[in-house]
Design goal:
This protein has 101 residues and is mainly alpha-helical. It has one domain. It is 69% helix and 8% strand. It has a two-stranded antiparallel sheet. Helix 1 runs parallel beside helix 3 and helix 2 packs antiparallel against helix 3. The longest helix is centred in the last third of the chain and has 24 residues.
Length: 101
């Protein structure tokens, strides 16, 4: 594996989230506390490993990676879905209905 297990879980969550979002066309931005809630366990585990020099459990790395992957890729996919490229002009779509049609 070219990356650590936590990074692999982030990419895995992103892959399955991408499939689900394109299938069900659910494109809705979450609030900032929701994104922070999903990302903070991975950040806490990572920094505690570095500060306390302990080795985290594989299950914990996978779980925190999946949570972080869901949040990061959801934000990325929502950002991509709300960009409208028209020729040389790039603009942000303000209405979600424009992206679903």
């Amino acid at each position: 594996m070219a990356v650590c297990i936590r990074c692999f879980a982030v990419y895995l969550a992103g892959f399955f989230l991408s499939l689900a979002m394109f299938k069900y066309r659910v494109i809705r931005l979450w609030s900032l506390p929701v994104y922070l809630l999903f990302i903070s366990p991975a950040l806490a585990d990572f920094f505690l490993e570095k500060i306390l020099h302990y080795h985290s459990l594989t299950f914990l790395r996978v779980f925190t990676g999946l949570l972080a992957g869901i949040a990061l890729f959801h934000l990325l996919l929502v950002s991509i879905a709300t960009i409208k490229i028209d020729g040389n002009n790039i603009e942000r779509i303000t209405s979600i209905e424009d992206t679903v049609s």
